[in-house]
Write a structure and sequence with these properties.
The protein is an alpha+beta fold. It has one domain (4-110): Arc Repressor Mutant, subunit A. Helix content is 25%, strand content 11%. The protein has 5 helices and 4 strands. Helix 3 (17-27) crosses helix 5. The protein starts with a helix and ends with a strand.
Amino acid sequence: MIPHACLNHKNYLALSSFAVKLLIDLYANYNGHNNGDFCCTWSMMKKRGWKSEATLNKARKELLYYGWIICSRHGGRNRASLYAVTFQSIDDCKGKLDIKETVTAPGNWKELKQFPKKEKRKNKSLVREVMQPTTPPVVKMGDRPCLVR
């Protein structure tokens, strides 16, 4: 269960709804002795209802930025990155982590972060020069006027 102190912290309140969902999805795998062995690959999270890989990556980066999760093993070729929540102590996980187990929770989520200012979106539509319609010159040919094009 996520501690009450976490749920009322400024860093939690600053999270997007997708980041909150990812935190809950990761923590849903906690069995009491596997903090550090949480994986958020696209194939796994797709089964949990995620619709966009880009949104998943943004949510993961947001949780890392605000200190809710830390990378416990860096992934690579045929090896997934693993994560740990910072409000629980990190477990040994049978030696597959790049970090050591801890007796107490790292508590990175307690460090107040500068809330990034949201950038104003610039209108990406092309600005087209509007040319004033001009009337073609009129030339008189005999009795009737003719438009020259």
